[in-house]
Amino acid sequence: MGEISLIKVDEGLADFVHQQIENGAFGSESEVIEAALRLLQEQDQDAIEAIRAAIAEGEASGEPQPFDFDEFLAEMRRKHIDQAGRAADLLHP
């Protein structure tokens, strides 16, 4: 097993570690730290898998389509104006 000789944490985290031991969730400071690191490792792996899935989905979606950013902004503005107009009609029939 690997060894890290000293870990310093802020007082709040130290209190949390000790509470976990006092509550019986863990038997030692090392067990708490190991569980936290495992969780972080799992979260990193989940994030990597999500990115890979998104890449695969994008690749499977076909050839890229042209995107006109100016047209996109114009469409969003039109939608916003339309929605604002409908809201005004509801408030002032």
Automatic annotation (TrEMBL):
Keyword Phosphoprotein attributed: no
Family: Belongs to the ParD antitoxin family.
Entry keyword set: Toxin-antitoxin system
Identification of the protein by name: Type II toxin-antitoxin system ParD family antitoxin
PANTHER family named in the record: ANTITOXIN PARD
GO biological process, any: regulation of DNA-templated transcription
Family annotation (SUPFAM superfamilies): Ribbon-helix-helix
Family matches, as Gene3D superfamilies: Antitoxin ParD1-like (6.10.10.120)
Superkingdom in the source lineage: Bacteria
